[in-house]
From TrEMBL:
Residues flagged as site, Positions MEP for the nucleophilic attack: R166, K221
Gene that encodes it: ispD
A GO molecular-function descriptor: 2-C-methyl-D-erythritol 4-phosphate cytidylyltransferase activity
Cited function: Catalyzes the formation of 4-diphosphocytidyl-2-C-methyl-D-erythritol from CTP and 2-C-methyl-D-erythritol 4-phosphate (MEP).
Protein name: 2-C-methyl-D-erythritol 4-phosphate cytidylyltransferase
Site, as annotated: Transition state stabilizer: R21, K28
Origin species: Duganella guangzhouensis
Length: 240
């Protein structure tokens, strides 16, 4: 008799950043975007998805805003006050805080709170695309521009040292989804938290090849001030 694993899916949103590149007067995840605090859009997308059992939001231990953005009445959402110095630290601390609540085979979707354009349809696309692949996967977009690498030490300069062949290049988005056990092991054994800018890179270091599932431009990461207007254009139309 074959036993099929009844997979459970959980969302984990790192939301403990300071938004330095946004240069706003507070963390960008709380900026009003599309009529509400930015992180609320992604939380609402996970809450609206029939696939997601529970959503966890990782904030800084001294965060004084989250309780006004996510009222305790949201019973499918739990705030974890374990944010760390880097995104990887925040994700790893969040995973460790769930020890005993998630099983090894539970699937965890790590999603930037700074990506408000996520929809339940994109969540379903990731889940369907990854299926039972033990390597997990992530939403990503094939690169369409020609990529240049600047000369060493000339960061931000107009000096181009080389053109990077774009065939096979993808721009990683989130959610990035892996089993709880694999993601915990990957981030827990990563060499340097600053070198790990996404969860998939830590999984790759263990020899896995996570699936690349085509995402959508609406799922952009709101990083710079100019990104807000783009995000709001997409948020005005949930069907993109
Ligand atoms: N120590 C950190 C750093 C980032 N993040 C989260 O990781 C996501 C992606 O990070 P990024 O876009 O870089 O956000 P910030 O780190 O806030 O931005 P910046 O790098 O400009 O300071 C965001 O939802 C951010 O809140 C986090 O939880 N903990
Ligand atoms: C995880 C990510 O969004 C994938 O593109 C990206 O690496 C986050 O980078 P950030 O500097 O922490 O925003």
């Amino acid at each position: 008799m074959t036993t099929t694993i009844q997979r459970r899916y959980f969302a984990l949103l790192p939301a403990a950043g300071v938004g330095a590149r946004m240069a706003a007067n507070g963390p960008k995840q709380y900026l009003t975007v599309g009529g509400q605090p930015m992180l609320r859009h992604a939380v609402d997308a996970f809450c609206a998805s029939p696939l997601v059992a529970h959503t966890y939001v990782v904030v800084s231990p001294d965060d004084g805003v989250i309780d006004s953005v996510l009222p305790p009445s949201l019973d499918s959402v739990t705030v974890l006050r374990v944010g760390g110095a880097t995104r990887m630290d925040s994700v790893l601390n969040g995973l460790r805080a769930l020890d005993g609540q998630l099983t090894a085979d539970d699937m965890v979707m790590v999603h930037d709170a700074a990506r408000p354009g996520l929809t339940p349809a994109l969540i379903a696309r990731l889940v369907d695309g990854v299926g039972d692949d033990p390597a997990g996967g992530l939403l990503a977009l094939p690169v369409v521009d020609t990529m240049k690498r600047s000369a060493p030490g000339a960061e931000g300069s107009s000096v181009s040292a080389a053109t990077v062949p774009r065939n096979g290049l993808w721009s990683a988005q989130t959610p990035q989804m892996f089993s709880y056990a694999l993601l915990l092991r990957a981030l827990g054994s990563a060499p340097d938290a600053n070198a790990i800018t996404d969860d998939a890179s830590a999984v790759e270091m263990l020899g896995y090849a996570p699936r690349l599932i085509e995402g959508h431009p609406r799922n952009l990461k709101v990083t710079l001030p100019a990104d807000i207007r783009i995000a709001e254009m997409y948020l005005a139309n949930k069907e993109d």
